Amino acid sequence: MNLQKKNYEIITDELRRIIEAGLIKPGEKLDTIDRLAAQYRVGRSTVREALSHLKALDLVESRQGGGTYVKKPGLEPPAMPESLQNSNTELSQVLQVRKILEVGAAELAAKHRTAEDVENLSKIIGQMRNAANSEEISRIYDTNFHLAIAKATGNAILETMMIHISEAMFRTIEISRKLWLYSGKDTAGKLFEEHKKLFEAIRDRDPNLAAATMAKHFAQVENALLSVK
Question: Which CATH superfamily is domain 82-227 in?
Fold first, then answer.
């Protein structure tokens, strides 16, 4: 069984999150295959395969005259309870699961990351910096960053576990960022700096600092949650 996520699956997931977040609305056109291939640094055939999967999910459609268009807002993530948005208890439970997985993942990533992992994390950090003024886009890159850390652990089972909860993770990141930002606990700029510090610890092969930074991140989110109970 191959537990490694393929390039087309990564692109499929990211485009799906963009559509679900409403950043590309029904009826709007996706970038061309050439532009998507350049953006994700993959071949055109990889992009075509990702678009085929989005079509199978009934999220996009090809139209006469060329181009791929968003067909509908997107599927509701089945892994996340419907009551999460108004249930602090359920949000706390998901955050607990993420903390258990991701503090260890940060430590492992700092020990086992490759040059390719560092390049990928650096790219996402750059995307987060450029999207600092757009909370909707920042949430997508935030999710991608945490998934990239899981990949950098070199542990295919851990990576697969993170992928399986990625839809729930995206929703909790959306909610927790709102709690954190709008409770006055922090600013978007400071959130970015915290992610940058985590990236640097992984880049510099400092497992203790990476784990401590991730643990601090979740502690701050939990504190923000407690402040609205």
Answer: GntR ligand-binding domain-like (1.20.120.530)
